Amino acid sequence: MIRAASRSLTSQLAWPLGIALLAVATYLPSLRAGFQFDDWSVIVFDDRVGSLAAWATSMPGIRPLLKFTYAVNNELSRLPSGFRSVNIALHAINTLLVYILLHTLGTKQGRDAGQVHRAALLATLLFALHPVQTEAVTYISGRSSSLSATFALGSLVVWARASDSPRPFTLVLISAALFALALGVKETAIVLPLALLLWSAAGRPAEDTAQSPQIALWRRAQLMCIVPHAALAAFALLIAVSWLPYQRLLQASLRARDIGTNLLTQADAIFWLLGQLLCLSPINPDPALSVASSSSYLSWLHAALLVAVIIAGFTQLRRRPALAFGVLWFFLWLLPTNSLLPRLDIANDRQLYLALIGPAWLAGLALARLAKPTDAPLSRKPAVGWTLAVASLTSLTIIATVRQNRIYADEVSFWEAVADRSPGSARAADNLGFAYAMACRQSDAAREFERAIELDPSDVRARVNARLLQEGALLSSLRASNCVQPPARRN
Question: Which of 259, 229, 253, 225 is nearest to 241 (CA)?
Answer without folding.
Answer: 253
